[in-house]
Amino acid sequence: MKKKLCLQDVSGISEIDLSERLRAITGWKNGKTEEREQWFDLDGEEVVLRCRETELLPVAKSSELRLFAREGIIITATKLLPLRELTIVYTSKEVTKLNALVEKLCCRMSLILAEPDLEQRLAQESGTYNFMKLPVYKKGDLQAMAVCHLPWQLYVVSKAWQQFLQRPEEKLFVRQLRVKLRRLRSTLSFFKPVLQRNSCAAWQNALRQQGELLSRLRELDVALMTCEKIRLQAAASSGKLTVPEQVETLLQKLRGEELDACLRKADLSVVTKTLAQLNVWLHERPLAPNLADKKIRKFIGKRLCEWSQKLENIDRKYPDFHNMLELHQIRIKVKRFRYALQTLPEVPRDSNLLRRLKRLQDMLGFLHDDFINAKLVQCFLEDSGNVELRYEAGLFAGWERAKAEAAVELLPQLWEDFCGALSSWRKENL
């Protein structure tokens, strides 16, 4: 069975013919070239693809790999989108050669992973994608998870890495990339019991490392946002609150240093190669033995029951809302459960449960950020000989502490509300 892997060229170079570029890198020879025009409907909107497609053939006649270069434009009612991408057609027996080819291409070009089917890709980007309508999903077995639930998240993560590396100064891109990585990891964790154990653990570790690369940067961004909140409150208080300007200046300096360190370690070629290899693994045989015929909806229902039960068990022993380490573990469980509810289309939607989940998660997130901020400024208090900086750091910590104490007061009620909504949802749907 032939499969496809698509990579977009995001170098911004359009003067060099893509097929010639690929031929120079691979040493492959040009096959046929043809002009293509494709029309399709996207949620009631007419979309036109116009491109030149060139086939490249490997020198080894025994190889079944094929490489297609496409350059052109996508025309919608409101905009023109450039198209510059390559698609590798492969079979299962040539996965090793495929991975070697991907590595060679990623080392020489700026590439990101993309959905091979253009119509599906545009639907994903517009938010109208529904993989439950795909023929492969309608079989209803667990293999659908590997080719439907996870791949589109890989494409989202790959795009987010490109956005961050192109504009690393934008704090929003750091946050979005981390969220998308966590969502992908959460989905992989959700399906972990039916995946090959060793391979799944390796992929989870690879994705965790990508997220950890950004963790310190995000912590500094959160602290800087706290400085901005204090600044706004100080303005509203007519000067009764001191703005921690030296703390903010130091945090900006630390962010610059951390960003430089992050950019030295972050390599788009490595990221894309990793995500492409994970995508190939998902389309091969990722399932544990004897599970191929198991039904996906039955598994999802059972897994949701397990995850929700763990949350209910927390309610029975009742959490210590003043223990930040315990609250962090609860936050992780709550976040994973929310991702599952939002990501899996098979899960019955409940606006009441999702609303209470978000409120609880936001509050737990705020307390976690406060905990991290406190650890950051503690370094200023201990290590700095600057009296004024130490004074501002103390004010910063005090402002954070007051906000945290107020938040902790609200937690028990938010927790009770969530647990009540969760119990009702379980009775109705599981």
Essential attributes:
alpha+beta; CHAD domain; globular; 64% helix; 6 strands; 430 residues; 14 helices
Summary, kept brief:
With 430 residues, the chain is of the alpha+beta class.
Strand order, largest beta sheet: 2-3-4-5-1-6
Radius of gyration: 25 Å
What is the CATH class designation of the largest domain? Answer: Mainly Alpha
C-alpha geometry: globular
SSE order in H/E notation?
A: EHEEEEHEHHHHHHHHHHHH
What is the share of helical residues? Answer: 55-70%
Low-confidence stretches: none
Specify the structural class: alpha+beta
Number of domains: 3
Q: What is the CATH topology of the largest domain?
A: CHAD domain
Give the tally of β-strands: 6
Strand portion, in percent? 5-15%
- By DSSP (H or I, 4+ residues per run), the number of helices equals 14
Major sheet summary line: 6 strands, antiparallel
Mean pLDDT figure:
89
| Annotated CATH architecture of the largest domain | Alpha solenoid
Describe the structure in your own words.
The protein has 430 residues and is α+β, with helices and mostly antiparallel strands. It is 64% helix and 14% strand. It contains 14 helices and six strands. The protein has helices spanning 18-26, 95-108, 118-126, 135-138, 143-149, 151-166, 171-190, 197-236, 245-265, 268-283, 296-317, 324-343, 351-383, 387-429; strands spanning 3-9, 29-42, 45-57, 66-75, 80-90, 111-114. A hairpin with an 8-residue loop joins strand 3 and strand 4 (66-75).
